[in-house]
From TrEMBL:
This is BON domain-containing protein.
């Protein structure tokens, strides 16, 4: 795969993340050698799965490494105890 084709596919992936329902602008897409690294924090595991599904579709044949965290927005299950 040529460098120009890789750059085009990565740009198309970034655009798709920005405009689709997933619209996760907090996901960073970096090129590391021949691989693509996805980093960031997402609100739910479903959102992470959707980002990875889009990456699989757009970046076929390119190694993708994901370091995507899920933000825990659940309320605490017990009151905080202060000393």
């Amino acid at each position: 795969m040529s460098g120009d084709e890789s750059e085009y596919r990565i740009a198309r992936f970034r655009d798709r993340l920005a405009r689709e329902d997933v619209a996760e602008l907090g996901v960073r897409v970096e090129v590391r050698g021949a691989a693509v690294l996805l980093t960031g924090t997402l609100p739910t595991a479903d959102r992470r799965d959707e980002v990875l599904r889009i990456a699989d579709a757009e970046l076929i044949g390119m190694p993708v490494h994901a370091d995507l965290l899920i933000a825990c927005a659940d309320p605490p299950d017990r009151p905080e105890e202060l000393p």
